[in-house]
Specification:
single chain, alpha+beta, Rieske Iron-sulfur Protein, 2 domains, 4-stranded antiparallel β-sheet, 2 helices, 11 strands, 26% helix, binds FE2/S2 (inorganic) cluster
Amino acid sequence: MASAVTADVQARAIATERAAEIEIAPPSRREFLYYIWTASLVLLLGQAGAALIWFALPRFKEGTFGGTFGFAPDRVPQPNSAPVTVPEGRFHVVHSDAGVNVLYAVCTHLGCLPRWNPAENRFQCPCHGSQFALTGTYLAGPAPRSLDRFATTITFTDGSTATQNEVGDAIPLDGKTIASVAINTGRRINHGSKT
Ligand code: FES
């Protein structure tokens, strides 16, 4: 009986010793690499999620440069009259025989601000003399191309909408009445030529 008790005590002692060994055993190389890999993956997924949220959020508030501007229909100029300038949006709204367009107010030469000269019926740049027609088309001077345009969507009272084509030509009105104008100053269209 005594020997059975002794064997039992010894067995428990051995079990306790092994359990202690198991508890304090350092992680193997494989386990260590697994932990590192898991931590890296979690970090990477966290960064990817944060980047996704960052890009999904709008960068610019509506009505601030870089964002979208609403423009009241009754402010759209009459055909071939002086442009309407919106300094905070850095654009001119123009209306020519071809239709309505929105021109980026910055000169395509070295970035000065051409001004509308009603006497000459054209934009003239104060820095090096480049000139542009009401449509933004290059007329003279060192500028390499016509004025850039901002992507614009016009919604008409009949529910239809229209935008510029890929080179930013004016949006024809075709006798329709404008209900609203949305100007995206975050998307500039390079007209790409002097014409
Ligand atoms: S910046 Fe306009 S002509 Fe040079």
